[in-house]
Amino acid sequence: MSFWKWSKVEKTRTQFMPAGKVAYAVGDVHGSLGLLQAMLEAIANKSAQLDQVRPTIIFLGDYVDKGDDPSGVIDTLIEAKANDRFNWVFLKGNHEDALLTFLQHPEFGPQWLQFGGAPTMLSYGVTPPTARSEPEVWEAAAQQLLGSIPSAHMDFYQNLGLAYRLGGYFFVHAGIRPGKAIEAQKDDDLLWIRSEFLEDRRALPVIVVHGHSPDMEPYADHRRIGVDTGAYATGRLTSVRLEADKVDWLHVTRADLKPG
Fold first, then answer.
1. Handedness of CA 61, 170, 152, 138 (dihedral sign)
2. How far apart are CA 67 and CA 22, in angstroms?
3. In angstroms, what is the C-alpha Rg of the chain?
4. CB within 8 A of 175, min separation 6: which ones?
């Protein structure tokens, strides 16, 4: 189903995607391995049906935490990017930022645990300390986790981009700070901003495609496209397909998962 609402002013603008380009932007996965696998299959099938020439698949971050199999998600993404039928773009989310922060600053551990870090530790075979554990316990846990993360996974985490631009679209995990030029955006805003971006109504120099702020339905207007439908909690992973001035949604749910 195609979804877009145009104003008379917007109709005068040039197409948002460059001619001949197609992109898929995938919302927050959060350890939902089965949904990720189903989404990759759905995109591949859709692309084959439309005979597209090397579409770009952009993941908007938050691969880890909250869901059941964060390390399995990373394995799958590393394997997927070997498929040169697609151009792959992997952006950093605030949860990958939190993981890397914990590895460098173990005192961040209790805070990471509060917003979903335990499943990531468990997926790498590390038992999370309690939030009230002594600093030396968190230090030991960080060292154990660092030693348990495969080098290919660390390379993946450390090489995630912060943003990606294609045509009139700007892909980022959380959003941008309104009133600031794109080149002046701070990393923290790109990864963590929420209400200041979502609730602002000023026009933006680009259409921002983002995750980070889950809702039951994806969202699109003249400023932004929100793709996070809370996969780990709702059982629904969403991507948006962008071609010329068209915006189409692609959803997978737990009902789409193959047995076993």
1. negative
2. 29
3. 19
4. 189, 190, 193, 194, 197, 198, 208, 210, 212, 213, 224
Backbone angles phi, psi at 18, to 5 degrees: -60, 150
Domains in the chain: ranges and CATH: 8-93+160-256 (3.60.21.10)
For the record, the structure tokens of 132 come out as 């009230």
Q: What is the pLDDT of residues 108-130, one digit of tens each?
A: 999 999 999 999 999 999 999 99
Q: What tokens does 249 get? A: 């949604």
DSSP string, 61-86: S--SSSSS-HHHHHHHHHHHTT-TTS
Quote the pLDDT of residue 257. 84
* Residue from 155, 159, 163, 152 nearest 58 by CA: 163
- Enter the tokens of residue 15: 């197409």
The position carrying tokens 């597209």 is 52
Q: Which of 27, 20, 39 is nearest to 225 (CA)?
A: 27
> Model confidence over 139-162: pLDDT tens digits?
999 999 999 999 999 999 999 999
